[in-house]
Amino acid sequence: MSDEKNSKQDKKKLIAEKLVEQQKEARIVRKIVFITAIVGILLIGAVGGGGYYYIKEALKPVNASSEKTVDVNIPIGSSTTGIGKILEENGVIRDARVFKYYVKFKNEAGFMAGDYKMNPSMTLPEIISSLKTGKVMQEVVMKITIPEGKQLKQIAGIIAEKTQQNEEEIFKQLNDKEFITKMMGRYPDVLTEDILKENVKYPLEGYLFPATYPFYSEKPTVEEIVTVMLTKTKEVLGEFRGQMEEKEMTTHELMTMASLIEEEATDKVDRDKIASVFYNRLEDGMMLQTDPTVLYAHGEHKDRVFYKDLEIDDPYNTYKIQGLPPGPIANPGVMSIEATLSPADTDDMYFLATSTGDVLFSKTLAEHNRKVNEHITNKK
Fold first, then answer.
1. Which of 47, 246, 256, 323 is the most buried (most CB within 10 A)?
2. Phi, psi at residue 359, to the nearest 5°?
3. What are the residues facing 212 on neighbouring strands?
4. Between 334-341 and 271-284, two packed helices, what is the crossing angle to 10 degrees?
């Protein structure tokens, strides 16, 4: 009986040891599976993220500043795949496969064979439009440069001067309800219903992006010019959609705040610090009190704003209204948009632009007034 008892105990001990060993093996397997899963997820994320950025880059012009003319021949019967390969080989697009899927996604068709003169600065919509109409792109005939911080009236003047058209007629079209509605339909992510809100002076104010635009005819229409500009605005804003969503900021809010920063900034200034001041004021319940909005309310440019100017009763006058004005007061550039979305982390509540272009920041009104006396009042 003793031997039988010892035999049973040995068996139990052996079974227990095997169970412990199996549990250890199971834990190891689970760890391996867990690590493998994590690595897999990271790889998928990396590939997905890399793929996203690759496609994003592939949709951009090969060289936005290029003035080079490229001769491209599209043979009769060419497929979309074939056309993409030809365009890529000639350096007109970045990736033939991306072009192919872009065309399918946009449901484009009806490309025409022929000899084309294209340019590496052309966007995919421009290339597709050319191929659909059979329009041979010639060398750049004219360029229109729209600087940062320009208002719609000034932009109308620049277009008029370059195209030899009537400035008043151009400005009238830029504010035509039917024209604006048409543009809103084309660019719903850029031109939202916010541009039609009460008190907005000019719906397209701030949305015609500052850049140099090449044109291939001596007198492009206002619609053609605005279309190119809004396409650029869409491309630029596309870079910041993630940040806008994180901050729960609408396109109109972004462009409005960025326009204030643009108008206050100098060549030497840190725009992110100006943005910080504006956000600090809003958080503290202060009025923004920025002079460019006063000038916009008056509808004229002045080298200096006087106390009497601050009294104007206008929804754009941030000395009278709380929060942001109804809309942008000029067209902001990329740096001002970046500053709006990534302001500096400061406690500053005031800033002062000096005659040398420097901007001095202060945390208190007393400190700000001392700097005003030192750099403004005593310099007169």
1. 256
2. -125, 125
3. 145
4. 40
Cβ-based neighbour number of residue 204 at 10 Å: 23
Q: How far apart are CA 37 and CA 243, in angstroms?
A: 29
Residue appearing with tokens 């966007």: 123
Whose structure tokens read 């060549």? 267
- What is the C-alpha to C-alpha distance for residues 200 and 188, in angstroms, rounded to an integer? 18
Give the other-Cβ count within 10 Å of 103's Cβ.
Answer: 20
Where would I find the H helices in the chain?
2-58, 80-89, 96-105, 124-133, 152-163, 167-174, 177-186, 222-238, 241-246, 251-264, 271-284, 291-298, 334-341, 365-375
| pLDDT-derived band at 11, boundaries 50, 70, 90 | low
Q: List residues bridging with 116 in a β-sheet.
A: 72
The answer on pLDDT for 77 being more than 90 is no
29 pLDDT above the threshold of 50: no
115 class by beta-carbon count within 10 Å (0-12 exposed, 13-18 middle, 19+ buried): exposed
Gap between the Cα atoms of 147 and 220, Å rounded:
19
- Asked if 167 and 156 touch (Cβ cutoff 8 Å), the reply is yes
Question: Rounded CA gap, 294 and 325, in Å?
Answer: 10
Q: For the chain, what is the mean pLDDT?
A: 84
> Rounded mean pLDDT of 201-225?
91
What is residue 30's predicted lDDT score, i.e. its pLDDT?
53
Q: How many beta carbons lie within 10 A of that of residue 296, not counting itself?
A: 26
Answer whether 89's CB lies under 8 Å from 71's CB: no
CA distances from 300 to 138, 305, 333 (A): 40, 11, 21
The mean-pLDDT minimum among 116-120, 150-154, 199-203 falls in 116-120
* Residue 346 three-state SS: coil
Q: Alpha-carbon distance 202 to 347, whole Å?
A: 34
Q: What is the pLDDT of residues 236-290, one digit of tens each?
A: 999 899 999 999 999 999 999 999 999 998 776 789 999 999 999 999 999 999 9
In angstroms, the CA 341 to CA 269 distance is: 17
Q: Which long-range CB contacts under 8 A does 296-301 form with residues at least 24 apart?
A: 296/151, 296/201, 296/325, 296/329, 296/330
Pairing of β 359-362 and β 212-215: unpaired
Give Cβ neighbours of residue 119 (< 8 Å, ≥ 6 apart). Answer: 66, 67, 68, 69, 70, 92, 137, 140, 214
CA distance 216 to 332: 26
